[in-house]
Amino acid sequence: MSKIVGMGFYAPEKVYDNAYMESIVETNDEWITQRTGIKERRIAADDEYTSDLATVAARRALEDAGMSAEELDLIILTTVTPDYFTPATACVVQKNIGAVNAAAFDLNAACSGFATAMTVADQFLSNGTYKNVLVISADALSKATDYNDRGTCILFGDGAGAVIFSSEKGGVLSSWIGAKGDGGDKLTSLAYREDAEETEKRISHNKNTIWMAGSEVMKFAVKIMAEAADKVVADAGLTWDDIDIVIPHQANVRIVDSAAKRIGIDTDKMFINLDRYGNTSGASIPIALCEARDAGRLKKGDKAVLVGFGGGLTWAAAVIEY
Ligand code: UT7
Fold first, then answer.
1. What is the CATH topology of the domain spanning 3-169?
2. 205 catalytic per annotation
């Protein structure tokens, strides 16, 4: 009961390519390319924040939908790099775009944010509470990245993706969201909590940067992506032959390839743009969705699987009919 009626994305202008990463940490283009598939990432300007990225993406989605901001009933924004703890970044965007009739709140499911928020939006639309919901995933991960840590800094980039869902038949055919809190210590970024052990793990000892046990997260990712994608396809009453495209969270090309192998589908069914953006957290799926549509890979009536995983640990998957 939640059709996509508009979408848009924004990626900042500044680029950190692999040559630049080589200049700041002990790494090289060959290692990064083979181990991750990433070639470059977009980086927000010093005075450009998550709400700024989100606002541009939201305006583009409204334009794409031919809708005015006043028609929005709700804005859900997912991020792990909010401008403030309060107000919610969703409220900042609400003000910026003039969505005076919309409720607004943030949701934190890390890289699983988009498909999680979409699932929440679908509840409000399916039960008749709201007519138009804007889901935005935006992150300025560069502000939370330890640029002395070669294990994480080569991965992350900044960006925002926004999608407007309206209460029309079809749309979200099935979804599954989940969490495994006992794996939460594998990917952390501290807020108020003082945790000497966690802080010590970070090369720069800055508790607000992201720390990750990369290969453990990777093992979790491959398994859960395959399991979640299989489940939502079955729950929608479909088989993999009915699916036109898979839009996975863009973390690492090896994760995407291994998940495809596990599911038993051709990697060609997977849409990949992480070479140009790196891992933009929750924004990666809506950015990829926009690019897939613009490249003619996602057409009206097509069925797409969206599947993400991330900090929490969390996962979220859905089948949509575009
Ligand atoms: O959105 C959810 C967030 N999570 C993720 O996306 C992360 C998922 N994990 C990954 O993508 C991978 O685990 C990484 C790309 C982070 C690392 O790849 P890996 O194959 O798991 O490598 P590793 O961490 O096991 O490290 C292998 C070697 C180590 O050297 P030694 O100990 O074998 O001598 C690392 O020190 O590679 C070294 N290494 C690097 N070498 C060159 C780690 N980072 C780099 C680097 N350049 N940037």
1. Peroxisomal Thiolase; Chain A, domain 1 (3.40.47)
2. no
